[in-house]
Amino acid sequence: MTLKERYAAVMERFAASMPSPETELHYDTPFHLLVAVILSAQCTDKRVNIVTPALFEAYPTAESMAVATPDEIFPYIKSISYPNNKAKSLVGAARTLVERFDGEIPSDIDALMELPGVGRKTANVMLAVVFNRAAMAVDTHVFRVSERIGLTTDSRNPLQTERTLVEYIPDKDIPRAHHWLILHGRYVCKARKPDCLNCPIADLCRYYTHIDNN
């Protein structure tokens, strides 16, 4: 199987098993999604979804959060990983949105990465989910799954993985492929013990083919 054929087969299989994948973060507006994604760094979506309702009620817009202080944000997110740093990032991002972008989420990756707390992964999440752009956010799940199943080989870092994925996945499928790989890594192709027996792409997977032949 060529690499191009592997990609085509994996994408087709994912499309059949997960036709309408979505982020598991709860949000009502693009600003809420930005907040949730910033909070989700090195933290589970489940934990983020527990704390964001009260946070969103208190600070529903960038404008309302921009006039808050990190100390005021902290109590809402204290159970999240790195709450001090993230409280500063949230306030900083809100202020930058208000001061530079009229409170609206920009649709350009460079502009997004000017926001405190927003790196390339978070920016790509926003582009894919909010604007349906062909942007591939590479988190630990995407990085691991891509290498394990054979979409990448000896990828050195998330940026290299991102570039390989966007080279082989059609633009129209990239927003969904981002979710496919994350959800597959979260529930099936787990880090410590992949559930190969219940995997919809096991016969296409480099890892499974290798262990099956040994």
| CATH architectural grouping of the largest domain | Orthogonal Bundle
What is the N-to-C succession of helices and strands?
HHHHHHHHHHHH
What Rg do the Cα atoms give? Answer: 18 Å
- The share of residues in helices is 55-70%
Instruction: State the CATH class of the largest domain.
Output: Mainly Alpha
β-strand amount: under 5%
Number of separate domains? 2
Q: Which residues sit in consecutive blocks of at least 5 with pLDDT less than 50?
A: none
Considering the protein shown, what is the CATH homologous superfamily of the largest domain? Hypothetical protein, domain 2
Tell me which oligomeric state these chains represent.
Answer: single chain
What is the CATH topology of the largest domain?
A: Endonuclease III, domain 1
Mean pLDDT: 95
Structural class: mainly alpha
The count of strands amounts to: 0
Give the N-terminus to C-terminus distance in angstroms: 19 Å
Shape: elongated
Largest sheet, strands/sense/barrel: none
Number of helices: 12
Give structural notes:
The chain is an all-alpha fold and 214 residues long. It has helices spanning 3-17, 30-40, 45-58, 62-66, 70-77, 83-101, 109-112, 120-131, 140-149, 158-168, 174-187, 206-212. Helix 9 (140-149) packs across helix 11 (174-187).
